[in-house]
Design goal:
This protein has a single domain (2-69), classed as Winged helix-like DNA-binding domain superfamily/Winged helix DNA-binding domain (Arc Repressor Mutant, subunit A, Orthogonal Bundle), CATH 1.10.10. 74% of the residues lie in helices and 0% in strands. The chain is built from 5 helices and no strands. Helix 2 crosses helix 4 (42-55) and helix 3 (31-38) packs across helix 4. It is elongated. The relative contact order is 0.19.
Length: 70
C-alpha cells in the first residue's frame, strides 16, 4: 500500500502532457508513434521522456515500466 501511495505521489509530479507520453510508453508505442499521436516532434517526445524519467527517479525504460505498472 505504501509503495502504491509513493507511486501515485511521484506520478502526480508529471504534467498532463508527460502523463500522455507515459501512457503511450507503457502501451509500447515508439517515440515516432507517440509524436504522431500527439502531433508533436520526436525531439519533444524525447524531452518529455527524459523529464518523466528524472521526475520519477528512474534510469531505464524497464524501471519506468515497472514503476508505472506497480
Amino acid at each position: 500500500a505504501d509503495q502504491r501511495k509513493n507511486t501515485q505521489s511521484l506520478l502526480s509530479k508529471l504534467t498532463g502532457r508527460e502523463r500522455q507520453v507515459l501512457e503511450r510508453i507503457v502501451a509500447g508505442r515508439l517515440n515516432k508513434q507517440i509524436a504522431d499521436d500527439l502531433s508533436i516532434s520526436i525531439k519533444t517526445v524525447e524531452a518529455h521522456r527524459a523529464n518523466i524519467m528524472e521526475k520519477l527517479n528512474v534510469n531505464t525504460v524497464a524501471d519506468l515500466l515497472r514503476l508505472a505498472l506497480s
